[in-house]
Write a structure and sequence with these properties.
This protein is α/β, with parallel strands linked by helices. It has eleven helices and eleven strands.
C-alpha cells in the first residue's frame, strides 16, 4: 500500500525528484519503490520524457485502480472511526454561494449544538468545480443546484431557487417590462461557460432565435460580482436569494423580462457519490440541511 501511495504521488507530479521531496524520502528509495511495483505487475509503469517522466499505458491503468484503493481505505478508516466515536470527526462540505447564505448557517449552528465534536470543513465555490471534487472523493457532500444528470452522484432535493437577470437600478432596462429583443447590444457579466446557469442562459437566447449574451466580464467569484455589476453597468444572471442578500447594498434590481423568458427555475439540494461512504455525522448534517430548507 505504501508503494502504491508513492506511485500515485510520482504520477501526479510527473517527476521522481519532486515526488521524493514531497514524500520526504530519498530519490533512490522512491526509485526502488517503482522498481518493486514494475516487478510485481510485470510492466513498465513510466516512460522518460526529457527530464520528466510520464505514465505508460500500463501505468495509467494501475493509477486508476490505485486511486480507487486509496479512496476505499480512506472510507474504511472513516467508517471504523465513526462507529467507535459516534457523532464526531469531520464533514467535508462543498457549497454554492446561494446555499452558503441561506441553508448552511442554520444547519451548522444546529450541528454544533447537537454534536460539538464534529468539525465542518466548508468550501465555497462554483458548482462545476465542487462536483468534480466530490467525484474525486475530496468532499463528502455538495449543497447546490440539482438536475445535471450525473450517474456518479445521487441527489436529494430540499428546496427551490430561481435565477434572474439583474442590473443596477439606473440601467436603461431596469424598472420596466423588457422584451427579449431589447437585450441586443447589451453587455454582460457572467460565470464561465462550464457553469450550468451560464449554459442555460445561452440556450434560452438561442431557442428564441437571438444570439447568446455578449460577455464583457467572466468571473467565478460570487463575492466580487455585486460591486462589479454596480460599477460597470453590466447585466448579470443571479439567484433571487443572492439578490435579496446583497441587492440593496449595491443598488441592484431584477430586470423584469416579459413572459419570464429568462427566469431559470432550478432544484436545490444535496449531492453525494453513489459509491461514497457517509459517516453518521454527515448523515445528521444532511438531515439538518433539509430541516433548514
Amino acid at each position: 500500500m505504501r508503494d502504491l501511495s508513492y506511485f500515485i504521488k510520482v504520477a501526479q507530479l510527473g517527476h521522481l525528484g519532486r515526488a521524493a521531496e514531497a514524500l520526504h524520502i530519498s530519490p533512490s528509495a522512491l526509485s526502488k519503490c517503482i522498481d518493486r511495483l514494475e516487478s510485481q505487475y510485470a510492466a513498465q509503469l513510466f516512460q522518460r520524457v526529457g527530464r520528466s517522466i510520464r505514465l505508460s499505458e500500463a501505468g495509467q491503468l494501475l493509477l486508476a485502480h490505485a486511486v480507487q484503493v486509496e479512496r476505499l481505505l480512506d472510507q474504511a478508516q472513516r467508517q471504523t472511526t465513526a462507529l467507535g466515536q459516534g457523532l464526531s470527526g469531520s464533514v467535508r462540505v462543498g457549497a454554492a454561494a446561494t446555499s452558503a447564505d441561506y441553508l448552511l448557517p442554520a444547519a451548522c449552528s444546529a450541528l454544533q449544538r447537537e454534536a460539538p465534536a464534529v468539525v465542518v470543513e466548508l468550501q465555497i465555490g462554483m458548482n462545476d468545480v465542487l462536483r468534480e471534487q466530490l467525484r474525486k472523493g475530496q468532499l463528502d457532500i455538495v449543497v447546490g443546484p440539482l438536475g445535471e444528470g450525473d450517474e456518479e452522484l445521487l441527489e436529494r432535493e430540499v428546496s427551490g431557487d430561481e435565477v434572474v437577470v439583474v442590473a443596477h437600478r439606473e440601467h436603461p432596462l431596469a424598472g420596466r417590462p423588457v422584451a427579449l429583443a431589447e437585450f441586443g447590444g447589451q453587455r454582460w457579466l457572467l460565470s464561465p461557460p462550464s457553469v450550468a446557469t451560464r449554459q442555460w442562459l445561452d440556450a434560452a437566447f438561442t431557442r428564441q432565435g437571438h444570439p447568446p449574451p455578449a460577455v464583457a466580464i467572466v468571473t467565478n467569484s460570487i463575492a466580487a460580482a455585486p460591486q462589479l455589476i454596480a460599477e460597470t453597468g453590466l447585466l448579470s444572471f443571479v439567484s433571487r436569494r443572492n439578490l435579496a442578500t446583497f441587492g440593496r447594498a449595491y443598488g441592484l434590481v431584477e430586470v423584469q423580462v416579459r413572459a419570464e423568458a429568462l427566469t431559470l427555475r432550478r432544484r436545490f439540494g444535496i449531492l453525494h457519490r453513489a459509491d461514497g461512504y457517509l459517516s453518521p455525522a454527515t448523515l445528521r448534517f444532511m438531515a439538518l440541511l433539509a430541516e433548514a430548507a
